[in-house]
């Protein structure tokens, strides 16, 4: 068995030691080197050709983000960012994901060595995912400031938006950028949207705020009890499941802290099952890049209830796990490249609306 060869880049000797012990304790991976700064790491990458890098953000001689940007331009390599899970650190983390990092994880607590075991399962799982992720070369266009006004799709003339149409989206690894690319194209009167993205709770509000600044639609972290209106998107908070419920003629958001489903809270399956029950054929499901099977059963339930469902295609996914499972389960109507997803979903939404009027 070929082991996953990992290079650690971190200015803390203690963190390097901790990560080395975690990684080397796994039968399928090994640390081939540990660099205290990006300049040393650059030479080690050339000599050792690692499968995956772990990369700290704040380091001497060169900032982690600067190094990541240069790496993805010249030698695209799977990268797992070591991030401080704070509101302040979230913007840096999102920038790293935008530049091409596969995922991020909390900075290990260096003051309690025994507490390192709490990180073990997350670190090794994310490294395994990163090893098989699709990494694209960074180009100037991929990191330029995106203008919502220049890329927003238009709605058909004479179309009247209706809350009867609803879009529900599930995503995991690679989903932050996929969601951004999708939402930024939507017009201000698109159907209401509910999103379940696997993400720590300290990051979901910052993620929603970031999208809100980029998009024509209003994007917020769901609080529960909001009316789902056209032109509004609600991101599930990292501490709760997001569900859809109905109050009279209106769709409403609902949060609960029931047990994780498929090891996740928020769970895509929980959101999709609620959409199947409450919205039925008026819902449009979208499942995007991510590892695992969360969302497959819920999307099948939506399909059985009359919803029309899209899955992101393998070529445009960072990790083709969740979409593949949804396709295999039989709940997907169309498999679409991410670049075409917004156009296809809007076309379907307006088509459903026309059918509803005729009926």
From TrEMBL:
Its EC number is 3.1.1.61, 3.5.1.44. GO terms for cellular component: cytoplasm. Its main location: cytoplasm. Keywords: Chemotaxis, Cytoplasm, Hydrolase, Phosphoprotein. InterPro entries: CheB-like, CheB_C, CheY-like_superfamily, Sig_transdc_resp-reg_Me-estase, Sig_transdc_resp-reg_receiver. It is found in: Cytoplasm. One of its GO terms (biological process) is chemotaxis. Residues 160-347 form the CheB-type methylesterase domain. It catalyses: [protein]-L-glutamate 5-O-methyl ester + H2O = L-glutamyl-[protein] + methanol + H(+); L-glutaminyl-[protein] + H2O = L-glutamyl-[protein] + NH4(+). It holds the Pfam family Response_reg. The modification 4-aspartylphosphate is found at residue 56. Residues 5-122 form the Response regulatory domain. Phosphorylated by CheA. Phosphorylation of the N-terminal regulatory domain activates the methylesterase activity. The active site is at residues 172, 198, 294. One of its GO terms (molecular function) is protein-glutamine glutaminase activity. Involved in chemotaxis. Part of a chemotaxis signal transduction system that modulates chemotaxis in response to various stimuli. Catalyzes the demethylation of specific methylglutamate residues introduced into the chemoreceptors (methyl-accepting chemotaxis proteins or MCP) by CheR. Also mediates the irreversible deamidation of specific glutamine residues to glutamic acid. NCBIfam families: PRK00742.1, PRK12555.1. Contains a C-terminal catalytic domain, and an N-terminal region which modulates catalytic activity. Belongs to the CheB family. This is Protein-glutamate methylesterase/protein-glutamine glutaminase. It comes from Nitrosomonas marina. The lineage of its organism: Bacteria, Pseudomonadati, Pseudomonadota, Betaproteobacteria, Nitrosomonadales.
């Amino acid at each position: 068995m070929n082991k996953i060869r990992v290079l650690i880049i971190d200015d803390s000797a203690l963190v390097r030691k901790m990560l080395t012990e975690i990684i080397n304790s796994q039968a399928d991976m090994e640390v081939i080197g540990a660099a205290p700064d990006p300049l040393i790491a650059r030479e080690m990458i050339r000599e050792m050709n690692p499968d995956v890098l772990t990369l700290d953000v704040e380091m001497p001689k060169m900032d982690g983000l600067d190094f990541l940007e240069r790496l993805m331009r010249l030698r695209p390599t799977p990268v797992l960012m070591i991030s401080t899970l704070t509101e302040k650190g979230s913007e840096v983390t999102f920038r790293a994901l935008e530049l091409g990092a596969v995922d991020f994880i909390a900075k290990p607590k260096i003051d309690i060595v025994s507490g390192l075991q709490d990180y073990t399962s997350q670190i090794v799982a994310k490294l395994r995912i990163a090893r098989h992720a699709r990494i694209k070369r960074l180009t100037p266009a991929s990191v330029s400031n995106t203008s919502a006004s220049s890329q927003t799709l238009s709605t058909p003339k004479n179309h009247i938006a209706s809350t009867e149409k609803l879009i529900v989206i599930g995503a995991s690894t690679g989903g932050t950028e996929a969601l951004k690319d999708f939402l930024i194209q939507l017009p201000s009167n698109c159907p209401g949207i509910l999103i379940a993205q696997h993400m720590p709770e300290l990051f979901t509000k910052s993620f929603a705020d970031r999208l809100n600044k980029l998009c024509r639609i209003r994007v917020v972290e769901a609080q529960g009890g909001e009316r789902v209106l056209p032109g509004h998107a609600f991101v599930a908070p990292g501490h709760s499941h997001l569900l859809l419920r109905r109050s009279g003629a209106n769709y409403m958001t609902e949060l609960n802290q029931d047990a994780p489903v498929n090891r996740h809270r928020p769970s895509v399956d929980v959101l999709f099952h609620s959409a199947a029950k409450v919205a039925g054929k008026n819902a449009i499901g979208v499942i995007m890049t991510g590892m695992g099977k969360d969302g497959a059963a819920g999307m099948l339930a939506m399909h059985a209830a009359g919803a029309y469902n899209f899955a992101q295609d393998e070529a445009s996914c960072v990790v083709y796990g969740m979409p593949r499972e949804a396709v295999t389960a039989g709940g997907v109507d169309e498999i679409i490249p991410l670049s075409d997803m917004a156009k296809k979903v809007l076309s379907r939404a307006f088509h459903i609306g026309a059918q509803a009027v005729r009926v």
